[in-house]
Specification:
single chain; about 35% helix; 4-stranded mixed β-sheet; metallopeptidase activity; disordered C terminus; 4 strands
Length: about 400
């Protein structure tokens, strides 16, 4: 379905996409007790934004991906059906559903879309690091700017952690309807707010808290492996969809709109150089496709690809986040995990040894019988390397 053809449906779809979801199954939410109350109150909006990105990516997916410049920017053409099925599965739309302008609203109103896969009962979304994960303070290590996921292959259970710094990024509504903290001391609206302030290309101003959450959900193999028919064709059963990371390659890693675009261009110009279907095996490619797709639809105009690595740091360089909080390079928003016993949790989960993947690159341990834990982090390691490339 063409984005342009959805113009008359904009208001109707907006009201439906932002309506409270009717859950067929719901994740468990865990919130760090030490978080400020105003941050705690944002979790439902963040979750709703994540579903909005996934649903819109699904209902606007074009039958001929060559007509979609956003898809062409981030994925190989012959992976289109697989990518479509990933978003359909995340949005809980039957894979054989045919979505047209006439049926899009009906689908949004129906339980098949507004509900969630029953597998979501296996998911915990944590704001801050919960006590059942190993107590090594990843969020604190990276000053709070990041997210990661921990998986148990034998049960399919997952915990997704959003660190404190990420929670100060804006939501969709805060970008579209700027709050007082989006204005500078002279009363001028800062760059990066409203459709007019998002520039003409994919960049960090488009990024929202829910983007990190969607990125981590793409890593959750349990949600897709039995329901996406092409899974084994495109994804290794040993790793699932990970984060592209190959020192010395071009690009060296797949984080960010610029690198995700470069990863696709390299896959076309140098087939096989970066492995088997590198774009569909890079979680940030899905996130940036969903973000650019959403803003193109909402703002009713196309965006071009990120032009330099600096486009990934515009919000951080600006330094002002939710409620005026410092999210610049000098920010220190990390915190250690609470002491066990400070909140209620299932003690059975503390018995799972090796409950983490490799910190920097989401390597996943897949030996038979072992827990398969992956983590992804849009974190300081990648950021510092990108920063260094600008010097």
């Amino acid at each position: 379905m063409k984005l342009q053809s959805l113009g008359p449906l904009l208001l109707t779809l907006t009201s439906l996409l932002f309506s409270p979801p009717l859950f067929a199954a719901s994740p468990t939410f865990w919130i760090e007790p030490a978080l400020p109350q105003d941050l705690k109150s944002r979790f439902s909006e963040i979750w709703r934004d994540c579903l909005t990105l996934a649903r819109l990516a699904a209902i606007t997916f074009q039958a001929d991906c060559r007509l979609d410049p956003t898809f062409e920017r981030y994925f190989e053409t012959d992976s289109a059906l697989f990518v479509k099925h990933i978003f359909y599965t995340l949005a809980n739309i039957p894979l054989d559903a045919t979505l047209t302008e006439a049926t899009a609203v009906q689908t949004l109103q129906g339980g098949s879309l507004l509900g969630l896969s029953p597998k979501f009962w296996k998911l915990t979304i944590a704001f801050g690091e919960p006590p059942w994960l190993p107590k090594d303070g990843i969020c604190a290590d990276d000053d709070g700017f990041g997210a990661y996921a921990s998986f148990r292959r034998e049960t399919g259970e997952a915990t997704i952690v959003l660190c404190l710094g990420v929670l100060y990024y804006p939501t969709l509504d805060e970008i579209l309807r700027p709050r007082p903290w989006a204005y500078d001391e002279q009363g001028r609206l800062r760059e990066g707010y409203t459709c007019d302030g998002l520039l003409d290309r994919d960049n960090a101003y488009m990024e929202i808290v829910a983007g990190w959450l969607l990125h981590e959900l793409i890593h959750w193999e349990e949600l897709y492996k039995d329901d996406v028919p092409e899974w084994d064709q495109f994804v290794s059963s040993l790793t699932g969809i990970k984060d592209f990371d190959s020192p010395g390659a071009t690009p060296e890693y797949g984080y960010g709109a610029f690198n995700a675009r470069l990863l696709k261009e390299r896959a076309v110009s140098h087939p096989g150089e970066n492995g088997h279907y590198p774009t569909v095996n890079n979680a940030d490619s899905y996130m940036w496709y969903a973000l650019s797709n959403y803003w193109s639809w909402r703002c009713q105009r196309p965006y071009r690809g990120a032009q330099t690595p600096a486009d990934e740091y515009l919000r951080m360089d600006q330094g002002v986040g939710y409620n005026g909080e410092n999210i610049g390079v000098t920010a220190r928003l990390g915190f250690d995990q609470p002491s066990p016993g400070s909140v209620d949790y299932d003690t059975d989960e503390t018995d799972d040894e090796g409950d983490r993947g490799t910190k920097s690159d989401s390597k996943q341990l897949a030996q038979d019988g072992e827990g398969n834990e992956g983590e992804s982090k849009r974190l300081a390691q990648a950021e510092e390397r990108n920063k260094a490339s600008l010097k």
